Amino acid sequence: MRSGGIAFAPPPNGSAVRAPLLVCERPESALPRWASAWCDQARLGISRRPTLPSPAAQSCPGGAGEWARVMSDVCTTTAAGGTVLINRPSRRESGPPRVVAAVQDVPGDQTVLLDAAACAEALPAELALVHCVPISFGERSVGLDAAVDRGRTVLEECLRLLGQLDHRTRASARLERANPHELVDEELDADLLVIGGSRVGPSRELGLVAVSAVRHAPCPVLVVPRRPVPKG
To answer: Where are the strands (E) in 33-165, listed by range?
Structure first.
């Protein structure tokens, strides 16, 4: 569907109405303006849960259980076709607003792409698309060229899809040679990170990037359901 100049991602499970946005946050948190604007434009309800552990829980032995509950919420919600916002402050100090979207494949991450573009317009911010080729592919690995070509194809397809929309968001694409979870460390230059969560269906599994982002990204994280794997 469309609202204003941007197309919002349809529910990955094909239903007509998206589930409310689940916001995991700390009790004292305020909902960002862009999130309210995005939900209003997308006619998306909001469910807020003050369940996000404090920064001190990152290294506290007792914090593991708190994070396990958050991960369970993210995994269950995205597997059911819902979207989760990890509402934490951004540590970015300068530069124009920036949304980073980590895309793995198309059409699996089409929901990630379209929601990232819609959030970038709501901020407003520039949109940076990133695809990672793991460094486990050495410079002389047999599969390296194929992995790089595939990554470029994914990014080109994402830019093509964005080009079909009547949007005002400036978008760029970058191929990274790194371990995927390293994309969400303290060096991440983003006001919002958008990533794929569980694929819609019974598996309810989060990838390493999603797990790392939920716990360690230095900015808010929007975890979007990925399209189910086609049968056959």
So the answer is: 46-49, 84-87, 98-102, 126-133
Q: Are strands 46-49 and 21-25 parallel, antiparallel or unpaired?
A: parallel
**What residue type is 171 in one-letter code?**
A
Distance of alpha carbon 173 from alpha carbon 93, whole angstroms: 22
Distance (Å, rounded) from C-alpha 44 to C-alpha 110? 18
| CATH, range 2-226 | 3.40.50.620
For 79-101, the pLDDT digits (tens) are 999 999 999 999 888 899 999 99
d(CA 212, CA 110): 21
**Which neighbouring-strand residues pair with 49?**
24
Residue-wise pLDDT tens digits, 5-21: 455 676 666 555 678 99
Q: What's the pLDDT at 102?
A: 94
Dist. CA 179–CA 61, nearest whole Å: 26
